[in-house]
């Protein structure tokens, strides 16, 4: 399953990231924030408008706003 489909509040671990699907600068920023294979994440909130962007993703003690297209590039498994 991809991160954008993870139910709110469900803990998961990132198992793979399709870095080629992202712009290089965006991929580098996400890696700097700790969003890489092995990271434990959860969806805290989804946007309310038509695209349901952005997603609020919890990574450790930090909450990061993430566009749905970026979350779609991350494969996760529930833990």
UniProtKB/TrEMBL annotation:
Q: Name one Pfam family in it.
A: FeoA
What sequence ranges are listed for the domain Ferrous iron transporter FeoA-like? 1-78
Annotated signal sequence range: none
One example of the protein's molecular function in GO is: transition metal ion binding
Name the InterPro entries for this protein: Fe-transptr_FeoA-like, FeoA_core_dom, Transcriptional_repressor_C
Protein keywords:
Iron
Query: What superkingdom heads the lineage?
Result: Bacteria
Q: Which SMART domains match?
A: FeoA
On whether Iron is a keyword of this UniProt record, the answer is yes
Keyword Iron belongs to the record = yes
Protein name, as recorded: Ferrous iron transport protein A
């Amino acid at each position: 399953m991809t991160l954008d489909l993870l139910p709110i509040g469900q803990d998961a671990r990132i198992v793979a990231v399709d870095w080629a699907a992202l712009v290089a600068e965006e991929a580098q920023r996400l890696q700097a924030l700790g969003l890489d294979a092995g990271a434990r994440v959860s969806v805290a909130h989804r946007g309310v408008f038509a695209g349901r962007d952005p997603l609020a993703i919890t990574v450790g003690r930090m909450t990061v706003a993430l566009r749905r297209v970026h979350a779609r590039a991350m494969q996760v498994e529930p833990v």
